[in-house]
Amino acid sequence: MSVYFPKNFLWGGATAANQYEGAYREDGKGLSVQDVMPRGIMAPPTAEPTEDNLKLQGIDFYHRYREDIRLFAEMGFRVYRTSIAWSRIFPNGDEEEPNEKGLEFYDRVFDECLKYGIQPMVTISHYETPLHLARTYDGWVDRRMIGFYCRYAETIFRRYRGKVKYWLTFNEINSVLEAPFMSGGIATPKEELTDGQLYQAIHHELVASAMATKIGHEIDPENKIGCMVLGMPTYPLTPNPEDVWYNLQEDRKNLMFSDVHVRGYYPGYMKRMLREKGVEIAMEPGDEEMLREHTVDYIGFSYYSSLCQSADPEAEAAGGNLMGGCKNPYLKKTDWGWAIDPKGLRILLNTLYDRYQKPLFIVENGLGAADLLVDSPDGPTVEDDYRIQYLKEHLLEVSQAIQDGVELWGYTTWGCIDLVSASTAEMKKRYGFIYVDRNNDGTGTLARYRKKSFFWYKNVIETNGQCLEES
Ligand code: BGP
Q1: Active-site residue, from 112, 128, 172, 397
Q2: Closest ligand 1 atom to the C-alpha of 423?
Q3: Which helix (H) or strand (E) is 185 found in, with range?
Q4: Ligand 1 mean position, distance from CA 422 (Å)
Q5: CATH no. for 10-470
Q6: CB contact at 8 A, 408 and 362
Q7: What is the reported pLDDT for 316?
């Protein structure tokens, strides 16, 4: 397969504050929804933070960021995606004034990246809504969230002007459909949440995203502000037109988020769906103009897996973290049950580019696996050939998509350093090029070790992907 990546392609890695910073109460940080989710998305939140919650300490990036960023630089990262923990900046979320100590921390992190020529990319809200906003306002169900979020966004746009150019407004904004508490800070249990509340919350997020885009562009016209969606191409299980139509409808449940962000209005199919659900969105004057006039500069998305859809309710379920769907008989699965589909990434890239003709950015992709630390003459390491294989197969498809004409700005692998998983809240599911000595029971020294994939990715970046052709 011929390999091509543009000269300025942004190679890097991605993380999120709540999954690796730790220091959950340090320097004035407030609690976030993650601090009461010790079991991930499957279990209800606890009343208070509990000791078994691995995220409270994470991998202690808060104190080890220098060492970690040095390792990213050693791999040659050109971009580094992380998120700002909203509750470090506004501990409760509804204060008037930000917490200076929290702001200083990210100054240090971004300065450290820039020292090595690494561009920071920031997710403004990555599954870490301040807990107070969830418990007092029911998160995004309440329109006042728009004001709280925009105050926070404006604060960080101003503070990091000139340091951060790439921004994402909400991580996997479509995941609120499946995980309202983690994604939307919505405290009402999912089973009790009405469609009216859910779609009203989505409307608030969409308006807030457009408003943040406006604010970010006003503060610095150089800012590149994108949406971020959970990318999950769906295939009809059979050529039965019933399945094909069903598949289109299911796909649209996700596509509507990027449609609004890119095109600036609710598509007709979305209005019909809302009508049929009996939902009338409460819009305020100016909402539609805001959506229309402040569309995104690029589309960021995560990609792990694809799904099949069938109109037959008996079809075998797919597994995976958030989305439903049914099993694809042609694909193998990871140890955590996620179907592995490199071609799906090429399909998704082409589909999104055909639909929008907007630049794309793959901001998450990777293999979660249980790694085994072994001794080597150079010290402890992991022989993670399976991860190299996974990433290589995906990158080859990415390169094909670029040659298909897709405008792609960059690629950041998920969890470039091992961190706590979002769906299952465990350490054992590792994605990193860097192994972190921490276990599911909380034991471990937190020491960092380079895996075999560390050297492989370094070579990929150094050769701008050309080594993929030879290997
Ligand atoms: C995405 C999230 C990330 C990340 C990733 C891997 O949905 O944006 O936060 O964790 O999935 O999922 P997991 O950690 O559950 O393996």
Answers
A1: 172
A2: 15
A3: none
A4: 5
A5: 3.20.20.80
A6: yes
A7: 73
pLDDT of 302 > 70? The answer is yes
Residue nearest to atom 15 of ligand 1 (CA): 423
**pLDDT at 318 > cutoff 80:** no
- What are the tens digits of pLDDT across the range 239-282? 999 999 999 999 999 999 999 999 999 999 999 999 999 999 99
Checking if the pLDDT of 321 tops 60, the result is no
Give yes or no: 172 in active site: yes
Closest C-alpha residue for ligand 1 atom 11: 422
Q: Rounded to two decimals, what is the model's pTM?
A: 0.98
Q: Which of 284-293, 308-317, 320-329, 459-468 has the lowest mean pLDDT?
A: 320-329
| Helices and strands in the chain, H and E counts | 15, 12
Euclidean distance between CA atoms 24 and 56, whole angstroms? 5
Tokens of 60: 């202690």
Give the amino acid at 202. Answer: I
When pLDDT is averaged across residues 219-236 and rounded to a whole number, the result is: 97
21 given a catalytic annotation: no
C-alpha to C-alpha distance for 31 and 285, rounded to whole angstroms: 34
Please list every protein residue whose CB sits less than 6 Å from any atom of ligand 1: 16, 171-172, 230, 302, 321, 364, 368, 414, 421-424, 429
d(CA 33, CA 131): 5
